[in-house]
Design brief:
Layout (H helix, E strand, L loop, with lengths): L2 E7 L2 H17 L4 E7 L2 H4 L5 H4 L7 H8 L5 E5 L11 E6 L7 E4 L14 E4 L2 H10 L4 E4 L4 H9 L5 E5 H6 L8 E2 L14 E6 L3 H7 L5 H16 L8 E8 L2 E10 L4 E9 L4 H14 L2 H15 L19
Helix pairs in contact: 9-10
C-alpha cells in the first residue's frame, strides 16, 4: 500500500486522536502517505437530546464505518469507550493503543474538590455513571446534563451555567488543557467507564494489509484490560441507559478488575472485583458479573430501565437531575 486514509470525527479531541495515530504511522512507515478523512457524525450534530434518545453511542462511529466499507477510508480511530460492545461482523478492532489516564476529574474555578462545593452547587456531567457516583457520594450536590465537545463544555462552566464539571482526564490532557483539572477523582468513588482513556483502531475484518501496518501500535496490557472491562458491559447489556463502571489495573503481572452498576433514582450500586491473568481477561469479566448478579444487579438495572421507559424519557427535574443516557464522547 502507498496510501492510508484515517476516518475521524471532526471534533477537536477526535482530530487530536487521529492526528496522533497519523504521526505514529508516518514515523513507522515514512514511505506511506497517511491522510485524514474528517466526518461529522450524528452524535456530534444532535446536542439537545441525550444519546439514548437518538440512538446511543454507535452514532459516533456509524458514518466512519460507512467510509470504511465504501473504500473512502482504511481505518478509523475511536475513543474506545464510545465503541459499541458488539461490532458488526464486517469490522474488527485492529489495534488498541496504550492507555492515557483513565480517571475522571473535577473542573472548577472556585473550589478545589467536590467536598468543598456548597450544598446545592450544580455539577455538569455527560453520563449516568458519573451521576450515580455523585448521588451516592455527594448527595447534596445538584446534577445537570452537559453535552458537546470539550471546548463547549468548558465554555458552559466558564459562563457560570455550572459550578463544576466532571470530565475524563484523558481528553483534557490530550488537548493540552491539563491546567483546567482541579482534582483527579479517586477511583474508589468514580470508577472509570469501560475502556475510558484508551484509543481503538477499527478496520475492515480480514484486512491483513492494514492490520500489519498498525501492528506496532498494539499495547497488550491495555488490550487485556479493556477486554475484561468491556466484557462486564457486554454481559450486563451496557448502553447509554445503564450506569456502569469497570476498570482493570495491571498489578504484579495480573489484572485486577473492579466494577459496579446500579440505579440512579435509588442512588444504589452493586460492586464486585476479581483478579486474573491477561489471557483470561474475558473470563475475569464474566466472574465479576457473576458476583454482581448474585447481589441482585439485574433487578436493580431492570427497575431503572422500567422507570425510564414509563417516564417516556429521562427529563431534567428542575435542574436536579442529569438527562439520562448521554455518552462520554470527548
Amino acid at each position: 500500500m502507498q496510501r492510508l486514509t484515517i476516518a475521524t470525527r471532526a471534533s477537536p479531541l477526535a482530530l487530536w486522536q487521529a492526528e496522533h495515530v497519523q504521526t505514529l504511522l508516518r514515523d513507522a512507515h515514512p514511505q506511506l502517505a497517511v491522510e485524514l478523512l474528517r466526518i461529522s457524525t450524528r452524535g456530534d450534530q444532535v446536542l439537545d437530546r441525550s444519546l439514548a434518545k437518538i440512538g446511543g453511542k454507535g452514532l459516533f462511529i456509524k458514518e466512519l464505518e460507512v467510509a470504511l466499507m465504501d473504500g473512502r477510508a482504511d481505518l478509523a480511530v475511536h475513543s474506545f469507550k464510545d465503541v459499541p460492545m458488539q461490532l458488526e461482523p464486517q469490522f474488527e478492532i485492529g489495534a488498541v493503543l496504550e492507555r492515557e489516564d483513565p480517571r475522571d476529574c473535577l473542573v472548577c474555578s472556585r473550589f478545589g474538590s467536590l467536598q468543598e462545593l456548597p450544598a446545592g452547587a450544580r455539577v455538569g456531567t455527560s453520563s449516568l455513571r458519573r451521576e450515580l457516583a455523585l448521588r451516592i457520594h455527594h448527595p447534596a450536590l445538584r446534577v445537570g446534563v452537559v453535552r458537546g465537545n470539550v471546548g463547549t463544555r468548558l465554555a458552559k462552566q466558564d459562563r457560570g451555567e455550572f459550578d463544576a464539571l466532571i470530565m475524563a482526564a484523558a481528553g483534557l490532557k490530550r488537548l493540552g488543557l491539563a491546567d483546567r483539572i482541579r482534582a483527579i477523582l479517586p477511583t474508589a468513588q468514580f470508577l472509570p467507564a469501560p475502556a475510558q482513556g484508551a484509543l481503538a483502531i477499527e478496520i475492515r475484518a480480514g484486512d491483513n494489509a492494514v492490520r500489519a501496518l498498525i501492528a506496532h501500535l498494539e499495547h497488550a496490557p491495555t488490550r487485556a484490560a479493556t477486554r475484561a472491562e468491556r466484557m462486564v458491559s457486554r454481559a450486563l447489556g451496557g448502553s447509554c441507559q445503564v450506569p456502569l463502571a469497570a476498570y482493570a489495573e495491571v498489578q504484579g503481572g495480573e489484572l485486577r478488575l473492579r466494577a459496579w452498576a446500579g440505579n440512579v433514582a435509588r442512588a444504589q450500586a452493586v460492586t464486585a472485583q476479581a483478579t486474573g491473568s491477561f489471557d483470561q481477561a474475558e473470563a475475569l469479566g464474566r466472574a465479576v458479573v457473576d458476583q454482581m448478579k448474585a447481589q441482585g444487579v439485574e433487578q436493580l438495572l431492570a427497575a431503572a430501565l422500567e422507570a425510564d421507559s414509563s417516564a417516556g424519557a429521562s427529563s431534567a427535574e428542575a435542574d436536579s437531575s442529569a438527562e439520562a443516557g448521554s455518552a462520554e464522547a470527548d
